[in-house]
C-alpha cells in the first residue's frame, strides 16, 4: 500500500498512485507539472569533490538530485494549488539530459491535480 506524500509548505498530497485510499476524487482539475534544471558547472563541482564517495555512492551528487526533485515537486504542487487542488495523483518523475552538448539535467514532475 503506497502512502501519499505531503509537504508542510503546501499541504498538497502527492502520490504516484491513481487515487488516495479511502478519499474519492471529487474533481479532476487538469495536468500539472514542475521542472528543475541542474547546469553543467554543478556537475563539474560535484565530480571535483569525488572524494565524497562512500561505499560506491556520491553523496554530493545524490543530494543535488534530491534537491532538484524536491524543487520540481514543489513547483508542481504550487501549480495544483492555483487550480484549487488539494492533491496530485498519478505523479511521474522523469530525468532528462538536455542542451546541445548534454550539459544539463532536467528533473520533471507531472501528475493530475484533483480535489478529494
From TrEMBL:
<dbReference type="InterPro" id="IPR002765">
    <property type="entry name" value="UPF0145_YbjQ-like"/>
</dbReference>
<protein>
    <recommendedName>
        <fullName>UPF0145 protein KYN89_07595</fullName>
    </recommendedName>
</protein>
<dbReference type="InterPro" id="IPR035439">
    <property type="entry name" value="UPF0145_dom_sf"/>
</dbReference>
<dbReference type="Pfam" id="PF01906">
    <property type="entry name" value="YbjQ_1"/>
</dbReference>
<comment type="similarity">
    <text>Belongs to the UPF0145 family.</text>
</comment>
